[in-house]
Amino acid sequence: MLDCLIPGDAPALPLHLVTRGGLAGLLQRLPPSQAAFLRASGFTAKAQEWRLLPSLSATGGSGIDGAVAGLGDDAASHAASPWAYGGLPMALPEGTDWRLEGEAEAAPAVLGWCLGAYRYSRFKAPSRQPARLATPPGTETALAEARAICRGRDLINTPAGHLGPEELAAAIGDLAAAHGATFEVIEGAALAEGFPAVAAVGQGSPRAPRVAVLRWQGPDAAADAPLLALCGKGVCFDTGGLDLKPAASMLRMKKDMGGAATMIALAEMLMASGAPIRLLLLVGAVENSVSGAAFRPMDVIATRKGLTVEIGNTDAEGRLVLADLLAFAAEQAPALVLDAATLTGAARVALGPDLPALFSDDAQVAKTILRFGLDVHDPLWQLPLHRSYVSWLDSNVADINNVASKPMAGAVVAALFLRRFVPDDLRWAHVDLYAWNDQTRAGRPEGGEIQTARALSRAVTALLLHRDNP
Q1: Taking phi first (over 0 means left), then psi (-120 to 50 degrees means alpha), and beta for anything else, what does residue 310 get?
Q2: How many C-beta atoms surround the C-beta of residue 283 within 10 A?
Q3: Spatial separation of the C-alpha atoms in residues 340 and 347, rounded to whole Å
Q4: Is 470 a member of any domain?
Q5: Residue 420: its pLDDT value, please?
Q6: Helix, strand, or coil (residue 437)
Q7: H or E, element range at 25
Q8: In Å, how far are 78, 96, 191 from 136, measured between CA atoms?
Q9: Per-residue confidence at 79, pLDDT binned at 50, 70, 90?
Q10: Is 254 assigned a catalytic role?
Q11: Per-residue pLDDT band at 80 (split at 50, 70, 90)
Q12: What pLDDT sits at residue 56?
């Protein structure tokens, strides 16, 4: 899948990565004619700036002897960021092979290169092939993360007509088979009994809802190793239900399973690393459709936990799916529960597309996740679980309403809804993310995106295994 890489010992041209501070030294080391060319071209080593180095051979050859790419002023920050390298595979000439030189950091470079080379190609061949990078040693984790993110991006980018609840569940089955995990699908009568809120959300679609369950134990994990539960919102397409979205808001709703894709990618990263934990992955795979069978505004539905929910708006369906998953996860006595969902537009209004919102009332959990998000350039921003707003979810006919009585703090209120389905003594964090790039940037092509998975994978290790935990 990573056809942008070649073996580390394969012939390749040198790609010099340099900061502004290191540029003078590089110019001294290069042949005088190439140094003169860089000076004449105005190269200053700013981030994302690059130049091809002309060949010194009198016979011509390819005409290229290498390339130079800038890292900007802050060497530590830029060299460690995958985005510093993400533009290069599509900028350097097609069909060329490169090896890292200079101030590059191998793992971020490999990750950024692979993410920048990614293009969704199921229905249309890419307009060009990426330049290829010789794989440096010691980058196995970066390669595993790149594979997981690219597979997750593929899931989000696949049109809903080709990725419904059945296909999403099957993708988890394929992942389970690849890593020796157990897998089951809960559907039909068993779903209606055990996950009634998931069943209610999906009952309006001819493509039946289901819950996909993956269980895995690390090869070095003891029987009593800490259990991590991951819950993902897998709404394969969201019309809004009978509270129908306008066309503009429905346009990208194939990405409404982005939370599930993120949890799937995170599970893949942890299994590929052989983490000594036990893992439970739950995905509620549904389609929120319009039909005579669809659930209605002001209906009252049951949940796995036993709480009744009045439906204030059928377009607030993701929290209903997660409610049942969280209740099931809590029953398994996990050490930590994480959930992810493209849950609210309010989170995007508050933080924009690049900063997923993090909610947790466990200070250590939140601090650890935020720290690793900054460390690996996969950031989140914490928003409060402000308990004064709990009363906004009061209902006259049920235990709770699925939407607030006030048009404010939508992301906070959604997180407070989920909090009702998590025991107070259970460590839990909720991520409200966008899962999409609105335009192409270095390493982040337009389309589906896996956000927070790299940060969460490291935070899990710290929290559950007490490694480097702040």
Answers
A1: beta
A2: 30
A3: 13
A4: no
A5: 98
A6: strand
A7: helix 23-29
A8: 18, 17, 47
A9: confident
A10: no
A11: confident
A12: 82
Euclidean distance between CA atoms 436 and 259, whole angstroms = 11
Beta bridge partners of 97: 132
Range of the domain at 114: 5-138
Taking CA atoms, 303 is separated from 140, 166, 309, 468, in Å, by 42, 22, 8, 38
CATH number, residue 405: 3.40.630.10
Q: Which of 151, 304, 319, 458 is catalytic?
A: 319
Strand, coil or helix: what is 441? strand
Cβ–Cβ < 8 Å for 336, 323: no
**Torsional class of 230: left (φ above 0), alpha (ψ -120 to 50), beta (otherwise):** beta
Side chain identity at 417, as an amino acid letter? F
What is the chain's length?
470
| 24 and 53 co-located in one domain | yes
406 as an active site residue: the answer is no
What proportion of the chain, given as a percentage, has pLDDT over 90?
Answer: 93
Query: Which is catalytic among the residues 207, 215, 245, 367?
Result: 245
pLDDT at residue 265 is higher than 60 = yes
Is the pTM higher than 0.85?
yes
- The last residue of one of the domains, among 138, 163, 193, is 138
Tokens of 316: 């607030």
User: Do 99 and 161 belong together in one domain?
Assistant: no
pLDDT tens, 93-111? 999 999 999 988 999 999 9
pLDDT digits (tens, 9 = 90+) for 395-416: 999 999 999 999 999 999 999 9
CA–CA distance, 146 with 115 (Å, rounded to integer): 6
Is 328 part of any domain?
yes
- In terms of domains, do 204 and 342 share one? yes
**Considering the chain, what is the average pLDDT of its residues?**
95
CA geometry: angle 246, 343, 461, nearest 5 deg:
155
Q: What percent of the chain has pLDDT over 70?
A: 97
- CA-to-CA distance for 287 and 102, rounded, in angstroms? 50
At position 196, the amino acid (one-letter code) is P
Exposed (0-12), middle (13-18) or buried (19+): which is 177, by Cβ within 10 Å?
exposed
State the Cα–Cα distance between residues 456 and 465, nearest whole angstrom. Answer: 14
Q: Is the pLDDT of residue 158 over 60?
A: yes
CB atoms near residue 200 (< 10 Å): 25
CA-angle at 378, arms to 344 and 367, nearest 5°: 80
Alpha carbons 257 and 263: distance in angstroms, whole number: 10
d(CA 130, CA 126): 10
